[in-house]
Amino acid sequence: MPRPPLQGAERLEPIGLEALDAAAALRCRLDTKYLLPRVALDRLLSRLEPTHRVLEVDGLRDFEYRTTYFDTEQLEAFRDHLQGRRRRLKVRLRHYVDSGDCFLELKLRGARGCTIKRRVPHDPSLPRSLTADGLAALERWVRSAYDRPAPGPLAPVLDVAYRRTTLVAPERGERLTIDLELRMSAGADGWGRLDPAFAIAETKSARGPALAGRELIALGARPLDRMSKYCVGVVLAHGRARGNALFPVLRHCAGRHSPIGALGAP
Q: pLDDT digits over 91-139, tens only?
């Protein structure tokens, strides 16, 4: 039985995956994340109903994502992100649970702060292992973008799971993703989660501020500078030092190493 969609998403016109990619593939884009109360989402979707459509695949408008992030033993990707280094990256395996698809993905920081994403299909039976072909692809991508070797050796550091609803403004070539029930795990006892009363929204546009971003700010959502699910999870599950940029999200999280324990363990 299909899961019920995010409240308010049932009012939006649907769009298929192929049409969404044609309208807003956005392999190079400007990203901005926002934290907002879940109760504000219905008003947000009402404001976006005239301009946005919602991704629908096989009757679903709500999709489960599972992602495994890889890093070096020294957590170079984590440190580079917290320090705001221009040439930073993230390596992950993303599993689209509902379709069964799996991809190796690399996110790079490009010119003028844009995000560049590269990906290749990955064997879903190897959810926490990088293949020789995948490592070769990473090497090509990093050398092409940064003229340096890819970091390594890489090992799985963090698993992240959440539910996502994706909106697209076809006329503007923009996307908006809304992530709920964000959970992180690392090893046998490392864990973290976002307060389920909150959501992480992310606008993605080819240039300039996204229309959805203006509506989010009007509803009181705050932009999150250098916020990363990976970095938040490393702080919560691994207890690594946190940067000030993460505090607006961390204060609404709990985890094994979180200073805020009111939310309790999962």
A: 999 999 999 999 999 999 887 778 889 999 999 999 999 999 999 999 9
pLDDT in tens, 10-42: 999 999 999 988 877 766 778 999 999 999 999
Judge if pTM exceeds 0.90.
yes
3-state secondary structure the chain: CCCCCCCCHHHCCEECHHHHHHHHCCCEEEEEEEEEEHHHHHHHHHHHCCCCEEECECCECCEEEEEEEEECCCCHHHHHHHCCCCCCEEEEEEEECCCCEEEEEEEEECHHHCEEEEEEECCCCCCCCCCHHHHHHHHHHHHHHHCCCCCCCCEEEEEEEEEEEEEEECCCCEEEEEEEEEEEEECCCEEEEECCCEEEEEEEECCCCCHHHHHHHHCCCEEECCCCHHHHHHHHHHCCCCCHHHHHHHCCEEECCCCCCCCCCC
